[in-house]
């Protein structure tokens, strides 16, 4: 899909992953080419998924990490990130479901939370070889198939998720993050402490933080589909009131709700060189 606007032009191509891999993924693989943009920095809200990026052309940077490796994965985070993507870029963007990432990596995801790790650190020579092979390919279908083969090979020998954690995540997704964690633990017949410990290992963030990311993802989907009154969005997405929605915009999008709408990028975050000051980011809107 080719997109053009006053902000620039991009191409996005989505793959159709092997059905056996879909439980590992948060969404289908995305091939992205930035042909031209009238900005080179933006603020990206954290998704309820782990991100695996392989750059085919150009190099991504962040405000916190500087220039990133050519192929990397980041764990779950609960704060917005400043992304730098200057000039022409081409990359593959894979969004992994937390439990899918746990099976692929076979290590506690708390070690990755809020960090960026190169693929060769995570997978050794196999991670380096994957990125090199993808850069040699020219068609998106071949690239996506190569990623699928790599993921399938890693998942085959990986640990299965804890059934309680799997059910807890399913219930949080079903509720759009609106289910209270105490009620969730009671429903599953376990303590909140047990749930938090298992989430630290196999998800990377506590259940309450995951619920927050899922609620905010629901807000972003609502804005993309049919922007309405903020109070209605807050109510429909499970916020106690509009001030709680404002606070999440400040923490998870680095800006206010109205500013987010004014500066949003198709398919991404919002244009910005820095985060607004805290009192602005948490300001109320009508």
Description:
The radius of gyration is 19 Å and the shape is globular. It is an alpha+beta fold. Helix content is 42%, strand content 20%. The strands form two sheets. It has a seven-stranded antiparallel β-sheet. The protein has a five-stranded antiparallel β-sheet with strand order 7-6-9-4-12. The chain folds into three domains: 2-156, Jelly Rolls; 161-215; 226-286, no CATH class. Helix 5 (163-174) runs parallel beside helix 8 (207-225).
Give a short summary of the structure:
Helix content is 42%, strand content 20%. The protein is an alpha+beta fold and 286 residues long.
Return the string of H and E elements.
EEEEEEEEEEHEHHHHHHHHHHEH
- Distance linking N and C termini: 35 Å
Count of DSSP H/I helices: 12
Number of self-contained structural domains: 3
Radius of gyration (CA) equals 19 Å
Oligomer: single chain
Which structural class best describes the helix and strand composition?
alpha+beta
Give the CATH class of the largest domain: Mainly Beta
Beta-strand content estimate: 15-25%
Shape label: globular
């Amino acid at each position: 899909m080719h997109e053009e606007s006053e902000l620039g032009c991009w191409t996005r191509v989505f793959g159709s992953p092997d059905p056996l891999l879909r439980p590992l993924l948060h969404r289908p693989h995305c091939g992205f080419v930035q042909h031209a943009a009238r900005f080179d920095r933006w603020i990206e809200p954290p998704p309820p998924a782990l991100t695996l990026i392989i750059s085919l052309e150009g190099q991504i940077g962040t405000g916190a990490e500087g220039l990133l490796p050519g192929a990397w994965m980041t764990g779950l985070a609960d704060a917005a990130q400043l992304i730098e993507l200057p000039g022409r870029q081409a990359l593959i963007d894979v969004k992994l479901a937390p439990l899918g990432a746990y099976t692929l990596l076979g290590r506690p995801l708390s070690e990755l939370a809020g960090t960026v790790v190169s693929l060769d650190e995570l997978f050794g020579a196999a991670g380096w070889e994957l990125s090199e092979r993808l850069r040699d390919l020219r068609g998106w279908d071949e690239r996506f198939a190569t990623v699928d083969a790599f993921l399938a090979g890693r998942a085959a020998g990986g640990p299965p998720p804890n059934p309680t954690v799997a059910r807890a995540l399913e219930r949080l997704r079903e509720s759009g993050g609106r289910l209270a964690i105490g009620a969730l633990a009671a429903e599953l017949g376990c303590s909140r402490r047990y749930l938090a410990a298992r989430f630290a290992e196999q998800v990377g963030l506590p259940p309450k933080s995951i619920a927050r990311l899922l609620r905010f993802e629901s807000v972003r989907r609502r804005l993309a589909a049919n922007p309405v009154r903020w109070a209605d969005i807050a109510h429909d997405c499970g916020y106690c009131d509009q001030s709680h929605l404002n606070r999440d915009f400040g923490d998870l999008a680095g800006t206010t709700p109205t500013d987010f709408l004014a500066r949003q990028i198709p398919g991404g975050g919002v244009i910005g060189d820095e985060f607004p000051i805290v009192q602005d980011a948490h300001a109320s809107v009508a």
